[in-house]
């Protein structure tokens, strides 16, 4: 497995990765891969689009699950909807069925990773 180019700790610190609880999953009918997640970050709720549709038989099975999200990405328009962050998953870049990056024990929503 090839490693990406070296970065500094300052580069890593630019990412704001936080724990959020997925409170709802809505299928986007016109998309083959995207679903719309509603995510509770404690002090706010955000809409985050994720390409989970083809990865799970029932994407709604993740409702109630805490996971990691990048929250300081510029909002992005996809399929006529706005995504306010990115779900952090494990495996997609390696061509395996992705799984959620989750805390080993419950933590307060909005807790920072790193």
Work out the helix count.
1
Structural class: mainly beta
The CATH architecture category equals Beta Barrel
Which regions contain 5 or more consecutive residues with pLDDT less than 50?
Answer: none
Counting DSSP E segments of at least 2 residues, the number of strands comes to 9
Total separate domains: 1
Order of SSEs: HEEEEEEEEE
Q: Can you identify the CATH superfamily?
A: Nucleic acid-binding proteins
Radius of gyration: 14 Å
What is the compact description of this entry?
This protein has 114 residues and is mainly beta.
Descriptive overview:
The chain has 114 residues and is mostly beta strands. The chain has one domain (9-100): Nucleic acid-binding proteins (OB fold (Dihydrolipoamide Acetyltransferase, E2P), Beta Barrel). Helix content is 4%, strand content 35%. The protein contains 1 helix and 9 strands. It has one helix at residues 9-13; strands spanning 17-27, 35-40, 45-50, 66-70, 76-78, 81-83, 86-87, 89-90, 99-100. The strands form 3 sheets. A 5-stranded antiparallel β-sheet has the order 3-2-1-4-7, with no helix packed on it. Strands 5-6 form a two-stranded antiparallel sheet. It has a two-stranded antiparallel sheet with strand order 8-9. Strand 2 (35-40) and strand 3 (45-50) form a beta hairpin. The longest helix is centred in the first third of the chain and has 5 residues, at 9-13. The protein starts with 8 loop residues before the first helix and ends in a 14-residue tail after the last strand. The mean pLDDT is 95.
């Amino acid at each position: 497995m090839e490693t990406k180019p070296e970065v500094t700790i300052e580069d890593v610190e630019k990412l704001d990765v936080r724990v959020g609880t997925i409170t709802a999953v809505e299928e986007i009918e016109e998309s083959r891969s995207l679903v719309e997640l509603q995510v509770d970050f404690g002090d706010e709720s955000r809409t985050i689009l994720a390409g989970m549709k083809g990865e799970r038989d029932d994407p709604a099975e993740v409702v109630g699950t805490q996971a990691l999200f990048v929250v300081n990405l510029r909002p992005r328009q996809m399929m006529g909807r706005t995504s306010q962050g990115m779900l952090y998953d494990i495996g997609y870049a390696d061509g395996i069925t992705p799984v959620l990056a989750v805390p080993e024990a419950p933590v307060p929503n909005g807790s920072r990773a790193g």
